[in-house]
Design a protein that fits this description.
Elements lengths: L2 H14 L8 H6 L9 E4 L15 E4 L1 H6 L8 H22 L8 H12 L6
Antiparallel strand pairs: 1-2
Helix pairs in contact: 1-5
Length: 125
């Protein structure tokens, strides 16, 4: 399997791993009563960063409003999102800020390891 196919497979696994039990981390944190049927996985550090692209600590489950649609959403107000995320997952925020500086070689061997870890519900390298 080539790197392109492995990336697609890892992306799909990252997007779906644990979704069946997930809820919007912001709504749940803010204790509001929204009934969203669709959740979006959001990259805390953008997916261009290959070290964190498939890291489960770099994923936050968000309803459509808190992901892209609301004025206070991860994509429309990144400062607001950072403050909210740090309130309920400070350790993951710190981890991502440190790890995003690491450089990885995104080759077949690395991607196969990422897939294996994701399939077992574990964080990547």
């Amino acid at each position: 399997m080539n790197t392109h196919k492995l990336k697609e497979k890892a992306d799909k696994k990252w997007r779906t791993q644990g979704k069946e039990n997930a809820e919007c981390e912001v709504c749940e944190f803010l204790r509001t009563n929204f009934n969203y049927t669709q959740l979006h996985p959001h990259h805390v550090v953008g997916r261009k960063n290959k070290r964190l692209r498939w890291e489960l600590k770099n994923r936050c489950w968000l309803c459509p409003t808190h992901h892209t649609l609301g004025n206070q959403s991860a994509h429309n107000d990144s400062k607001w999102f950072e403050e909210i995320f740090c309130q309920f997952r400070k350790d993951d925020w710190d981890y991502c800020q440190k790890a995003k500086k690491e450089i990885v070689k995104c080759n077949i061997m690395y991607l196969e390891e990422v897939l294996c870890l994701l399939e077992n519900g574990k964080n990547t390298v």
